[in-house]
Structure prediction request, 261 residues.
Amino acid sequence: IHERQDMLMGGVAALMPQNPFAPVPLPLAPFIPGAQPSQTIRQSIFRVRDPVALGEHWEFSASVRANNYIAKLPNAQLHGLQWTPAFGVLYKFNPQTAWFADYSRGFQLNTSYFFTTDALQPEHSRQLETGLRWENAKRTFTMQAALYRIDATNVSVVEVAPPGYNVRMPQQTSDGLEFSVQGAVARGWDTSLWLALSRISGTLATGYLPKAPILGGALWTTYTLQDGPLAGVGAGLGITGRPASRSEERRVGKECRSRWS
Prediction:
């Protein structure tokens, strides 16, 4: 994966108070190439993963991700090569039920600013997870329950006053329990459910503890026509309660997870 982001802004930011019940049009934002607040971010990401099965019961997996990054910010330049490994193990009690455990490291660029316009350092995290997984014989329906813990440093938190900037949380810990169900309920009808009961701890330099939802989750269901001239046409409906922690959000896209063979 190779990505590049270029953001060009005017040298002066205009702030205008708004009444949400009677909004007024904002002035046009001037885009000036080469202005001081402009920034360029480039990331080249390479990832390799290798699963290995030993006998009928054990599976092992390992992956490594290399992120070669450079961020040219107004008052700083971040660059480097970050390696993030991940490991997983799975034991099958029978063809439908298994125990798994995962360990992974995480890395995330912070491209926001302090009020003093100093750049935030990248966020680093470590995640541990263990749980049980079950799926039916046809592998069309899966349930999973897991305990997890995420330790992160240099976590970026949105500043309330003044707006538009961020503050750094030196260290944050998230642990909890999650439960997920996904699969086919009936022919053409698929659904997924994710629930997480979490506890987040971490204090800013000011002594303020950011609040985050204790319970988060998502529910999504889709139905697709199977027959007739409109076969393949479908619709979906979903609702999501998102956690306030970026580390929690990245659980959806973990680096390594044991899979069924």
